[in-house]
Amino acid sequence: MQNKHFYQRARYSQQKISSWLLVIGLFLSLLGLLAIISSFTATMVTMLLFGVLLLLAGLVEGAHALFFQGIMYRARLFSAGLYSVVGLVLLIDPIGGAIGLTLLIALFLIASGVVRVLVALSLIKLKMAPGWHLLVGGTNLTLAILILIGWPETGNWVIGFFIGLELLLAGVITAFATSDNRPRINRW
Fold this sequence. Notes:
Number of strands: 0
Largest sheet: none
Helix content: over 70%
Number of helices: 6
Order of helices and strands: HHHHHH
């Protein structure tokens, strides 16, 4: 009898969690769609938020350097200045910051894609399946080429689009996690 009650409570808890996961998944998906639709706005908000965070980090680092002078005093002051300057630049010119960051993303995608393709080629020589490495490497190189073809204009929307796509996919995955309502209990 006690076992039956335990399993009923576990099933209820799982259904309650599943309902919340569905709500969270739908909310994340909606945010993702909004960010994709208004990717320029999402990019600008991201750059402004990043600028504020860097400026705050610079202020905290500077205060830390002043209050705790010692062997790392100059390094902390330099770090504080760098954080603050980059934060201010992003706050003053978020479009320029987005264009620069988009170029860095494209360069990262190129480097990552080349490494993945080289790993895939090494796996082929070892008579192993290169599948996922080749797919991810090719995808990274394709994305980098598409970004660079339209650069600097792509800098206005790529970051917001990527954030929106990530939110959309995270929301879909979270919502689909609710499809199995069985309680996860080991029965011996």
